[in-house]
Amino acid sequence: MILSTSIPAFSLPVESKTVTQTKTSSSNDLPNSIYYDDGTYVGVLTGQGVTKTLISGSPADSKIVTGVNDAYGNWIDDGRTQKKKKWGVWSWANGSWIPRGTLDQPQHDEYMVHGWTYVQLDTDYLWLYPLSQNYRVGEYSGIVYRQSDPAFDIQPANPEPPRDGGFQIMESYWSTWYYTGTVSKPDTRVYKYSQNYSGTVTLKASDIKSNPVSISGNEYTNNNIYWVQPNNQFSIKISGSTATANSDYKINSLHAIMKDETNSQINFNGYVNNSQNTSSNGTTTNSSVLMQLISTSVNRTSSTNTEANFSAKITQDNKTYYIYPLLRLYQDGDYTDPTKLLRETTLWEDIKKAVVKSDGVAPNGIVDCYYDNVTSDMSINVSNVVEIGSGVKRIWAEYSLNDSQLNVVEEDLKNNNGIYKGGKNLQDLFNGNADTVNVKVKAIDNVGNERTLLSKDTDVFTLNANIVRVLDPHDPIFKSGEKGILKINVTGGVDRINITFPTELSSLDDTLNKEITLTPQKADSIDYEFFIPLETEMNSYNVQVKAYKKDKEKVVYPPFSVTGNILDELKTRIRLMNR
User: Fold this and answer.
1) Do both 336 and 225 map to the same domain?
2) What pLDDT, in 10s, does the model give residues 557-566?
3) Source organism's superkingdom (predicted)?
4) How many domains does the chain have?
């Protein structure tokens, strides 16, 4: 049944339009194209060419500067500093002044005599003016180096000294110091890069948005694969929403689109009536026996959220289905008219799909089960395990008395490089009360497929007996009068042995029959020695041997035969001796 109730008509936005947008950057890294998304329209806008505009700064430059720093550390272009004064020492000899050298500091008490006056000018110290210094004025910086102008000599003036060899000290010459060098500035230009982008954008697909497919009720999930048993029901949820800005647009149909490995397709369709109340209508198209739709329910809330819940099952083993969501919005809510389809979500989005696989075959393997009668130890190995579906979940052994389900002991077999191993002592397992122990080895996969790999009864209460001659050969073929041994082996906690010879022998020797009391053990052995009575007639015989374990018993009949009399051989020897 398809529901069709009209709702008020609405106008959809235009499907596409041209958009221009400008992007700016402080570096030339604008992309060739940009993705546009304003919440309603989306698309790719193509750049129309980058424009470069100078905002501030200047290019790199260099220049030569000359000058000095003033007393406050400020640079003075073309400045000079009287850096160092030298004091010349002159002597008068033979009517002329002769230079004797220079002094950094005049020596007043030695040279400034005879009333000559001397005025010392301020002297700057050399360490205040290093060979080089850093220059930084405005944007320019660099290293400038100390320089000096040529020195000027001044000879002494009159009056002449009072005698030959007299000295006069005065300022002889001075040097003027300054700094010069090449300084530079970096490129400080700052640009703005801008580009116009233009293109055609379309109505945003997320105006109707589907969520990833949700699967529940399956038996096992691993690596985003949902495993189910054939014919077991599971649930598929398809859901989505429309944009809040377009709250007038309501989703009208939800579909679970399923494909198998051959691309055979099954559609589960859920429809929503035109009201905002819950309604349901589910159908399948291209239906296949491999997947059956059980039931559907569809709901749309008063907001823009909508969901459909489908119950499904896979009816065959080893099938894989890929389930994709598809949501549709129809004009006027009329999903009965395909021409009124306004919008639908993108189909075949792998990010939203769900993978469902069926597994109907349990694991298999080869079981090697060995029981040691002496120690009562049972060892179990399971090899060549084959599981092509959901994977082995567990391989275990079940031990029970006489295949009874009332007292079952389970043991998980441990995986050792692909071989599952385990084992128990069957006597200890049941506190020595075991007679026959049934061992079942089972395997189950992750979806619950179970297989019994082995079911075996093990007799832990055993009795074995045989008769041998003491003399060689040891086969149980006697002459009357010879000695024999009855060898008895028991397992399983035997507490008593009863030995009964045939009446043909026990009537001749009433000590032959014997009852032996034992302390119950896992395994025991008895060697019972006896003689064949001389009067025993030639024939085949059996000895009855019974073993008792509480109220249980077992019996065996080891055979022997009598073929002559030991005295016959003795008589023959006597006759030979009398000849």
Assistant:
1) yes
2) 999 999 999 8
3) Bacteria
4) 5
